[in-house]
Specification:
This protein has about 70 residues and is an all-alpha fold. The chain has 5 helices and no strands. It has helices at about 1-10, 10-30, 30-35, 45-55, 60-70. Helix 4 packs antiparallel against helix 5 (about 60-70).
């Protein structure tokens, strides 16, 4: 559904670049990766951290996809 929305809004390349950027952040930051791997940290806190870190850097549609994956 999100990819359909991305196609309709002509944002497929944007979503790709956003997710590539998010992936690079996880790969380059062991601490960041550890936070999101931890079962002790609630998903709501993980979402809040992501929104704080990536606010203004990735699209709203990319946030929707990430929120869906974390849930």
């Amino acid at each position: 559904a999100i990819m359909n929305a991305a196609k309709e809004l002509n944002l497929v390349d944007t979503i790709y670049q956003d997710l590539k950027f998010v992936n690079e952040t996880f790969v380059n930051s062991k601490e960041f990766f550890t936070i999101f791997k931890s079962p002790v940290i609630p998903n709501s806190k993980k979402k809040k951290i992501l929104h704080e870190v990536f606010a203004g850097k990735i699209s709203d549609l990319s946030f929707s996809l990430i929120d869906l994956v974390i849930s």
